[in-house]
Amino acid sequence: MPRTSDPKNPVMDLLARSSAPTLVGGTLLPEASARPFVAQYGVGRPGSGKTTGAMVPLIIGAGLVLLSLIVAISALRNGGVTMNSGMGIGLPLVIAAFIAGPALFRAKDGTRQWRRTAQIFADRVEVTDTAGSVTATWTAPISEYTDVHQSYVWLSSPDGDGDGLELEVILLRHPDPAKTIYVSGTRKVILGNMSFSDMVKAGREGRKDDVVAAAGDTRNLQVEALVDALTKETGLSLVQDFGA
User: From what superkingdom does this record's organism come (predicted)?
Assistant: First the structure.
């Protein structure tokens, strides 16, 4: 199926080009007992004037352009542009382009701040997409979806500094990636259902077997409950892809 490109729905067009987990990171886990299941994800708060993380690159970029302008004015007042002042003018502009450029493209297509709310029923999916002041709604039958997909997804640190994040991602997959629903993305569990403090306590109490069993256990019981409920409700098969 060809990818959807809908100028009336910027969110649909954005998600046809990029996967939701890479755009938004982790999400809240929907209630396994809720009917319908509700998945919500996006960037910023569409329609809100509040400064959010989505606006920070634009603010930084504007500051760098202003700095470049100040250096240029100072150089002209001092008789001309030298090599040093030229670097002082050009370098902030180059950095501004790298930082603010992607945000400007998102602002141009209306996806600097966007949100998708999907309600998953036994027979259909009802979606509301919002980008800026544009809101679009659409519905797709469950029969169009291929499966419930469960996998681990590694997300690098956005600024390239520090560690990245590994998520356990649940998708309701559609042949058209723009209609795939990002059901949940939770941090990968590495100690089973035992917290670090529980593990320390078990060690102090001499419960070595419990500690050994928990170490390396990646099962998340809440995610397993959601996946089980989702496959039973929709009748879709579960496809797990945890790598090697």
Answer: Bacteria
How many angstroms separate the CA atoms of 187 and 166, rounded?
Answer: 6
- Cα gap 112→221, rounded to integer Å: 35
Residues 6+ apart with CB under 8 A from 176: 1, 2, 3, 4, 16
Do residues 163 and 3 make contact, with C-beta atoms less than 8 angstroms apart?
A: no
Residue 159 has pLDDT above 70, yes or no: no
What does the pLDDT look like over 88-99, one tens digit per residue?
A: 778 877 877 777
- Kindly give, in sequence order, each residue whose CB lies less than 8 Å from that of residue 160, ignoring residues fewer than 6 positions away: none
- Choose among 36, 32, 44: nearest CA to 116: 44
Question: Using CA atoms, how far apart are residues 232 and 236, in angstroms rounded to an integer?
Answer: 7
Q: Say what the pLDDT of residue 107 is.
A: 53
Predicted confidence (pLDDT) at residue 167 exceeds the cutoff of 80:
yes
For 230-240, the pLDDT digits (tens) are: 999 999 999 99
Length of the chain counted residue by residue: 244
Please list the residues that pair with 137 across neighbouring strands: 128
Residues 6+ apart with CB under 8 A from 55: 44, 103, 112, 113
Question: 214 falls in which pLDDT band (50, 70, 90)?
Answer: low
Tell me the three state secondary structure of residue 240: strand
Instruction: Judge residue 105's burial from the number of C-beta atoms within 10 Å of its C-beta, 0-12 exposed, 13-18 middle, 19 or more buried.
Output: exposed
